Amino acid sequence: MGTQTKIIVIKSKEIIFTGILIVLGILMIIFIAGMLGKNKNRERKETSRFIPGVYSSTITLGENTLNVAVTVDADTISGVNIDNLDETVTTMYPLLEPALNEINNQITVVDNIDDITYSKENQYTYIILNQAIKNALEKAVPNQNQ
Question: CB-hemisphere CA count at 13 Å for 66?
Answer without folding.
Answer: 26
